[in-house]
Amino acid sequence: MKQLSKITDGLIGQPMFKLLVKVNALEKAGKRIFHFEIGDTDFKAYQHVVDATKRALDNDQTHYVDSMGIPELREAVCDYTKDSLGFKPEINQVLIMPSNSIIDFVMRCIANPGEEVIYPDPGFSTYIAVTNYTGIRKVGVPLREEKGFRMEVEEIRKRITDKTRLIIINSPHNPTGAVMNKKEIEEIALIAKENDVYLLSDEIYSRVIYDKIHYSPSFADKCLERTIILNGFAKNYSMPGWRLGYAIGPVDVIRKMGILFQTIYSCAPPFVQYAGISALKGDQDVIEERIRQYKKLRDLIVRKLNEIPGVSCLTPDGACYVFPNIKGTGMSSSEFADFVLEKAGVALLPGTCFGEYGEGYVRLCYTRRPEVIEESCEAMKKSIVGGIE
């Protein structure tokens, strides 16, 4: 009997997309669903980005281009990095590709099966998914609510071994919304240097931050030696469907990732890349206005969640998620998620989708309309009160 390759045995995918298929089927069957399960938004993409995409299509930007990315976009990334992080990378330090794929490509280019990657737990599901199928060993650093869900430096330090190849940090953080401070970032950059390991800084939410400042470990080496930045357009520019991002890192790492990208994808669509140029060089004030709107939504959902019996929710400092504690309901994360989907029509993710230390929590993406937040939280409250009674 024919068999598939052993490497495919470890493929687990992304839980948010699996749930999306399920809830879409429920909607098709007539059930009202409140969508909080996936990191998308009810807000439209910026018009100047849409217009740039249309212009690129009209101008026949539909052919093969440089696998590393068109020079105009890579230069725009260099300029944006200088403005936002204080250093200008060389163009050969920049690779254009889907942001989520960067996680996979970085791990496969720098770590062998059996070697170790240190990552935040709970943390973005792709960190777990990639290690699961590649045979790279994942080493989770527990994020604790009492510490504001920030990655603790000493917890990283004591997990370093002679097999450690990579440390992953994510600030602002998915799923908790935690933002690391300058001292923490500096100390983690020092740990990476002292132990001669790579440091992947997932900065996909770097613009989605409230009353805090985003710090990047790239200050230490300007991405020339060990730091690799992951960034993109889905979150910062409300462009999830464009699937566009970029990596900045040491030349040898970026070159190797570029060959892997060329092997699998050939190149990113040029009309999508021209949209990226428009995003980086266009009016940035519209982004700041949207972040102010997100902050209002954050405050609303935190307030409403804290009104639900058995639920408590910290106020996150960044990203577009809340990570409420649901232990007071007496349900596990999965039980809670199943319960509110069935009883209240609310689709959210169990915290265990993001690692074992996510047990007792759930994740909701709150970039939704205010009335959706109000109605869904009231529905959850009513269902839980009824369940308790």
Question: Can you offer a commentary on this structure?
Answer:
The structure is a single chain. The protein folds into two domains: 6-45 and 285-388, Aspartate Aminotransferase, domain 1 (Alpha-Beta Complex); 47-281, Aspartate Aminotransferase, domain 2. Helices cover 41% and strands 13% of the residues. It is built from twelve helices and twelve strands. 47% of the residues are buried. The mean pLDDT is 96.
| CATH architecture label name of the largest domain | 3-Layer(aba) Sandwich
Mean pLDDT: 96
CATH class of the largest domain: Alpha Beta
Strand order of the largest sheet: 2-8-7-6-5-3-4
The CATH topology assignment of the largest domain is Aspartate Aminotransferase, domain 2
Total strand count, please? 12
| CATH H-tier superfamily of the largest domain | Type I PLP-dependent aspartate aminotransferase-like (Major domain)
Termini separation comes to 54 Å
Q: Over all CA atoms, what is the radius of gyration?
A: 21 Å
Tell me the series of helices and strands, N- to C-terminal.
HEHHEHEHEHEHEEEHHHEHEEEH
Total number of helices:
12
Strand count, sense and barrel status of the largest sheet are:
7 strands, mixed
Number of domains: 2
Structural class by secondary-structure content: alpha/beta
Classify the beta-strand content into a percent band: 5-15%
